[in-house]
Backbone:
């Protein structure tokens, strides 16, 4: 039958309706003939909500008990596209990764016979999933506030939230302060979401990451606003031009930076832009005039070791623990066949409802009280505890056994660290203890994969994570899945980390990104360093950036800054810092060369120049001569100088230096590149005579082959140049 059964869940897109049990696709009331596997792949793509789906995931969905290759998946995708006919472009290939579904999707249920006749679908019960096309825009488009998906319900912070919302009407800057893991970012984002209607020009997230240079704070704000004026404009002027007359709410995360430079930046911005407001998360107050400070403390935790089941729900720490468990239960039930231990808790609110009704056993409540007290009611630590308990239940333990066992292990670890000599007190804090307990349950390979992901400086695309994990692939035992291809294993790992809440999924204007929360990332990076694997992993991460940046450039000559550009920038800054510190100068030079288009797109040529000059200074100061790397760096600098309106004589001097070093290295390619750039400078300056002389030298180079030409760079020192672009290689 072509019509869905009454009450059956239906997915609608374009002119199609798709049902799940059993899978059926209908186009304009006519059934579309498709096999079961093709329909299963279509369901997987639609359910991803616009997120790219890896080929490995499609293999698991279509052939759960078989090992198939990418060609088999591609054949089924081709079948789907043929069936969609003119709508075949709804299935988009993501090069080197998989596929995604690019259409607006609605979900609803088919009407029952007693209901009035009307459209086949009820009004959508969920917001439509829309993947906008990538188009150049003539007016600035701010970065959308990005909130992680599958969050725990908002619990225990309503008083603080009400305070922030009340202060927003009288204060221009509100700073949220508190210990690590107390939920500052969650409050800031929730408040911003509720205040969004008051700011027609946007609610704009700004992350002042550790790798953001202090002189680049204004650029961070401008990039969030997607401002890309002429490259020569000063950063702060560029920012002010974009906000002077706009009503904007900035949500600023400066937890990874010093408060003083961030405070100066925010104060200057507020002084010049009267309609701008800011909600800031920081370790301490910024000390600004008119600043309102809201301090976040741990969630309310029972004072007594025993709390009755009827009163347990009054304590926010317990509510958060059970709410997070319910969210994890529901997510695992959706993604996998739920184990028997989870059978009672199939909805995200079911466990919390049972707590409110006093239906949780006293043994479970007692264990939960001990956990909440030992973790001091810190929200992030409680969420990590829930992930560990959920993992135990997924292995078949009951809620009682899993909760009691975790409370016992937690107490043992805390006691051991307190009593151990030489152990820093910071390692006995709630978040480090809860994280250690969770990753202790991981097998060695999963643990290594988790630690590797800490190398990403902020948000990162799934394909980049898979690339890093496969580049650092370890030998695998048969039980670990030695027969599984590296990409498939890496993709499976990411799913496991997302399920556990260790990695967050973020919808960034249709581009799905992943993120490790900063406190977890910092702890994981310390663990990676202690393991002795940090430098090897950092080399793999930095070495993969040229390919990643080049792949993103192939997305098209886009002029709108997007989240992939900002992700590349964060990782590029971190990789450059590591490469210089580790003495990997050749890699640092390669990164500066390949990233030139990115710096230009983001209007950060000044920073590109500063970093190139800093690497050059360290390179020339090293004991080992590195003439070829010096030559390449001088070429990077020479190509960037005209973009910042450098006087012509300095541009010519820079290319002369490249020419001299190319002669010393007997590098004919760079020698020719330098002479062509010098010819271009003279031609654009109108000095036809000097350009003709240089052209004759170039022709001599061509005829002489590899022999050095007779041209002397000093002869061109007086040659007029221009501030325009030199010819690129």
Residues:
């Amino acid at each position: 039958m072509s019509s869905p059964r009454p009450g059956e869940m239906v997915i609608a897109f374009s002119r199609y309706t798709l049902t799940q049990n059993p899978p059926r696709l209908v186009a304009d009331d006519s059934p579309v003939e498709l096999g079961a596997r093709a329909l299963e792949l279509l369901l997987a793509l639609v359910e991803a909500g616009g997120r790219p789906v890896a080929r490995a995931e499609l293999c698991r969905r279509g052939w759960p008990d078989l090992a198939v290759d990418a060609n088999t998946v591609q054949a089924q995708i081709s079948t789907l596209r043929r069936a969609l006919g003119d709508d075949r472009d709804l299935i988009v290939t993501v090069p080197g990764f998989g596929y995604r579904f690019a259409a607006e999707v609605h979900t609803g249920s088919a009407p029952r016979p007693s209901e009035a006749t009307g459209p086949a679908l009820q009004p959508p019960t969920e917001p439509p999933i829309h993947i906008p096309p990538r188009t150049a825009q003539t007016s600035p488009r701010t970065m959308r506030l990005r909130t992680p998906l599958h969050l725990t319900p908002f619990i225990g912070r309503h008083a603080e939230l009400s305070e922030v919302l009340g202060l927003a009407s009288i204060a221009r800057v509100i700073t949220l302060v508190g210990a690590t893991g107390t939920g500052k970012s969650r409050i800031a984002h929730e408040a911003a979401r509720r205040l969004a209607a008051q700011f027609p020009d946007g609610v704009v997230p700004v992350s002042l990451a550790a790798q953001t240079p202090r002189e680049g704070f204004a650029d961070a704000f401008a990039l969030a606003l997607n401002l890309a004026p002429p490259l020569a404009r000063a950063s702060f002027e560029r920012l002010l031009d974009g906000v002077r007359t706009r009503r904007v709410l900035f949500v600023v995360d400066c937890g990874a930076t010093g408060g003083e430079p961030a405070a100066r930046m925010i104060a200057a911005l507020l002084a010049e832009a009267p309609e701008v407001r800011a909600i800031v998360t920081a370790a301490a107050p910024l000390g600004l005039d008119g600043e309102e400070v809201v301090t976040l403390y741990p969630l309310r935790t029972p004072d007594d070791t025993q709390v009755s089941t009827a009163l347990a729900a009054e304590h926010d720490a317990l509510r958060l623990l059970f709410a997070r468990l319910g969210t994890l239960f529901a997510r695992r039930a959706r993604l996998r066949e739920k184990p028997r231990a989870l059978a009672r808790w199939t909805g995200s609110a079911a466990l919390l409802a049972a707590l409110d009704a006093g239906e949780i056993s006293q043994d479970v409540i007692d264990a939960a009280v001990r956990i909440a007290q030992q973790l001091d009611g810190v929200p992030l630590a409680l969420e990590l505890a829930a992930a560990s308990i959920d993992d135990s239940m997924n292995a078949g333990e009951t809620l009682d056994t899993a909760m009691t066992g975790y409370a016992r292990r937690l107490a043992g670890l805390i006691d051991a660290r307190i009593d151990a000599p030489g152990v820093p007190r910071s390692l006995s804090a709630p978040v480090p203890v809860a994280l250690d307990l969770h990753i202790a349950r991981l097998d060695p390979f999963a643990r290594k994969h988790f630690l590797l992901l800490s190398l990403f400086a902020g948000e990162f695309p799934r394909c980049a994570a898979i690339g890093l994990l496969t580049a650092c692939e370890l030998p695998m035992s048969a039980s670990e899945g030695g027969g599984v291809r590296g990409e498939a294993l890496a993709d499976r790992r990411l799913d496991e980390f997302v399920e556990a809440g260790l990695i967050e999924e973020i919808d960034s204007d249709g581009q799905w990104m992943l993120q490790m929360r900063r406190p977890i990332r910092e702890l994981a990076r310390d663990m990676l360093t202690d393991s002795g694997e940090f430098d090897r992993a950092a080399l793999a991460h930095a070495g993969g950036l040229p390919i990643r940046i080049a792949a993103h450039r192939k997305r098209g000559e886009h002029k709108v800054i997007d989240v992939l550009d900002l992700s590349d920038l964060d990782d590029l800054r971190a990789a450059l810092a590591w490469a210089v510190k580790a003495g990997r100068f050749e890699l640092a030079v390669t990164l500066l060369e390949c990233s030139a288009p990115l710096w230009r797109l983001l209007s950060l040529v000044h920073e590109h120049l500063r970093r190139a000059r800093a690497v050059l200074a360290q390179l020339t100061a090293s004991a080992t001569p590195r003439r070829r790397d010096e030559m390449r760096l001088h070429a990077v600098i020479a190509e960037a100088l005209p973009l910042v309106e450098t006087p012509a004589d300095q541009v010519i001097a820079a290319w002369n230096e490249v020419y001299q070093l190319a002669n010393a290295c007997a590098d004919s390619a760079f020698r020719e590149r330098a002479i062509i750039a010098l010819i271009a400078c003279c031609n654009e300056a109108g000095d036809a005579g000097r350009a003709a002389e240089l052209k004759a030298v170039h022709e001599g180079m061509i005829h002489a082959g590899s022999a050095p030409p007779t041209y002397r760079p000093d002869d061109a020192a007086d040659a007029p140049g221009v501030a325009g672009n030199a010819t690129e290689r």
